[in-house]
Amino acid sequence: MKTTIAQVSKHEGEKVTIGAWLANKRSSGKIAFLQLRDGSGFMQAVVAKSDVSEEVFQTAKNMSQETSMYITGTIVEDTRSPLGYEMHVTDLEVIHEAVDYPITPKEHGTEFLMDHRHLWLRSKKQHAVMKVRNEIIRATYEFFNDNGFVKIDPPILTGSSAEGTTELFHTKYFDEDAYLSQSGQLYLEAAAMALGKVFSFGPTFRAEKSKTRRHLIEFWMMEPEMAFVEHDESLEIQENYVSHLVQSVLKNCKLELDVLGRDTSKLEKVKAPFPRVTYEEAIALLKEKGFTDIDWGDDFGAPHETAIAEHFDMPVFITHWPKDIKAFYMKPDPNREEVVLCADLIAPEGYGEIIGGSQRIDDLDLMKQRYEEHGLTGPAYKWYLELCQYGSVPHSGFGLGLERTVAWLSGVEHVRETIPFPRLLNRLYP
After folding, report:
1. Membrane-spanning regions, if any (predicted)?
2. Domain membership flag for residue 426
């Protein structure tokens, strides 16, 4: 019977065959311990000389790292194993013998590992990070499907910027100018006017020359947009969504979090509601903590976000930012025209902003004014203006950066480990 490592708990006491690669091995006299991986997980296989032919035993002892095989044996309980089971081998068949595999159990530098990212993904830690990423994606679809959202796929090639910035990748679209999307938000707003509550999950691109541990050139975003939803209700949806992600990872990625050495006690207390502070209150808090150079109208950097998150030791919303440092489409606070109804959600433990969101402008005259202020005069923005012209309603939305969220929940330091093939300022290979 062929099975996978993830399914061996269903086959205790049975003889099964698994297609696997050799991650590592050690041998001692008449026994060889093979550390196997098959994509679904990792487990130990024990090859005793007395249980197999001499040829099989010698093959097991001499097998090189990353050699592929079909391995057959009986599944037995092993309480010392994180998996809880191991295989007692009766036979194995080499499919392909790997020679001089470059990533060995010794330490390697980051650049070497990044140059071999196509192979580094096979390691136990990287496997665990990708499984956490997968669980966040699965839980995202679960949350939005259960809450009545419709999945929408906005275009990746666009004729304009979603936020009026210049950090765009330009290309030619036949005889027109086009850009790689930095957000699907504007298109999702149009979809929300048709379908009520929508969300997208896809790649976004920022031509930002940043080298920090929080930035990628190509990254993935979850972007919901909701008709008839105002600012405070949107914040409740955001905190319930993030709480759902955290609890899902804790429930379904126990082995992976253990491999990563993640302190899960810090994640276990992440439950809605989250604390909220206004931008003004955040400024005052930062000044109390010694950031005397921060003033009204300044954006926050990584040290500022970290200090605020550490104060609360929980994800925290920073709301009501100055209008002049936020995007043109954000709705002003009716009581204070100089600030907008928006919020950034800052993750604890120094992982920074994971969500940016706002209530959107729904007034045609105000949107026309914003167009003038931001110089949005081209025909590429005409369709977006029409959303305010034909049956506009209060509506809100937000975007969650997948890789920063993966970094936070898995506890890895740099977002380059949270995406299969990272695109960084100086890296387009492999």
Report:
1. none
2. no
